[in-house]
Write a structure and sequence with these properties.
Elements lengths: L6 E7 L3 H11 L4 E6 L6 H7 L3 E4 L9 H9 L5 E4 L4 E2 L2 H11 L5 E6 L1 E5 L2 E2 L8 E6 L18 E4 L9 E3 L4 H18 L7 H18 L6 H26 L3
Parallel strand pairs: 1-2, 1-4, 2-3, 6-10, 7-11
Antiparallel strand pairs: 4-9, 5-11, 6-9, 7-8
Helix pairs in contact: 1-2, 5-7, 6-7
Length: 254
C-alpha cells in the first residue's frame, strides 16, 4: 500500500464547546480537520465551522459515548493517515512536526501509541503518565470497537512514541466535577455493555475500587499533589465501584 504524506485530524464531539476552540487552534496546521458531531445542542458545530473544519454528523440516538461514531468519523477523513484527538485534548506543535516527519518514512509501521498528560483540578499528575492512547494510524482498514475505553483495530505494525518525549504528549484538560459526574453515568453504562457476563462478588466490590485508589494515590505518588492527587484517585475508585454495582444489578436481574 502506497501512502501519501498527508494527515487528517479527527475529533468526535457532543456539546464540546468548552475547549473546542483551544483544541482546533492546535489542530489547524494539519492537512484537514474532521469534526464528527453527534447532534450537539450547544455552539460546537458553529465553532467547528468557524475554523473551516469538515463537519459530519452521526446520530446521537441513545449512545453513551463517542465510540460508536469513531469508525464513521475516521472513514470520513480524506487523508491516508489519521490523528484522533478528543475535544478536550491539545496537540503540541512538537507532535505535529514529529508525525509529519514520521509519515515521510514510516517503514512497515501503521500506527503509533501517543502518550497523554492528564490534568485534574488544573494540575498535571505524573501518576497517570504516560497513559498511552492508540490515536495515530492509517485510515484504510482501521475499525474502532463501539465501547468506551477501547482502542482501534489497526491493520499492521504498531509502535509507541518514547515515554521520555513528554513534549509529544497530548495535554488532556480536566473538566468540572459536574461534567465528570454526568460522564460517569454514561461511560459506566457503556462499560457494563462491554463487560456483560462478568461475575461480581462482595470481595471484588470492596477491594477492586480500594486497590484502584491505593495504586494511584500511594503507589504512583498521587499523594504528592495535594487535593488534585486525592481527587484523581478517588474519581478512579468511584468509577470502578459504579461499574461493579451496575454489573451486579445485571447479575441479579435488576
Amino acid at each position: 500500500m502506497s501512502l501519501r504524506n498527508n494527515i487528517s485530524v479527527v475529533i468526535n464531539t457532543y456539546n464540546a464547546e468548552k475547549y473546542l476552540a483551544k483544541v482546533l487552534e492546535t489542530a489547524k496546521s494539519f492537512d484537514e480537520v474532521v469534526v464528527c458531531d453527534m447532534e450537539s445542542t450547544d455552539s460546537t458545530v458553529d465553532i467547528a465551522k468557524q475554523y473551516g473544519c469538515k463537519v459530519v454528523t452521526f446520530p446521537k440516538l441513545n449512545h453513551k459515548s463517542a465510540e460508536p461514531a469513531r469508525t464513521f468519523a475516521i472513514q470520513s477523513a480524506s487523508s491516508d493517515w489519521v490523528l484522533v484527538a478528543d475535544a478536550d485534548e491539545l496537540i503540541p506543535q512538537a507532535l505535529h512536526d514529529y508525525l509529519y516527519e514520521f509519515v515521510s518514512n514510516p517503514g512497515d509501521v501503521r500506527g503509533l501509541y501517543i502518550p497523554r498528560k492528564n490534568y485534574t483540578m488544573g494540575v498535571f499528575l505524573p501518576s497517570s503518565y504516560p497513559d498511552y492512547q492508540l490515536r495515530f494510524f492509517v485510515k484504510e482498514g482501521t475499525e474502532w470497537p463501539p465501547y468506551v475505553h477501547t482502542f482501534p483495530v489497526v491493520q499492521g505494525k504498531l509502535e509507541h512514541i518514547p515515554e521520555s518525549r513528554k513534549d509529544l504528549a497530548f495535554d488532556h484538560l480536566d473538566d468540572s466535577t459536574r461534567a465528570t459526574i454526568v460522564r460517569l453515568n454514561n461511560y459506566t453504562d457503556n462499560e457494563v455493555e462491554k463487560r456483560a457476563g462478568k461475575h461480581v462478588t462482595l470481595f471484588s466490590m470492596v477491594f477492586s475500587p480500594m486497590m484502584r485508589f491505593v495504586k494511584l494515590y500511594f503507589l504512583k505518588g498521587g499523594f504528592m499533589y495535594g487535593i488534585a492527587g486525592f481527587v484523581q484517585a478517588q474519581r478512579s475508585a468511584i468509577y470502578k465501584f459504579t461499574v461493579l454495582c451496575k454489573l451486579y444489578e445485571k447479575q441479579i436481574g435488576m
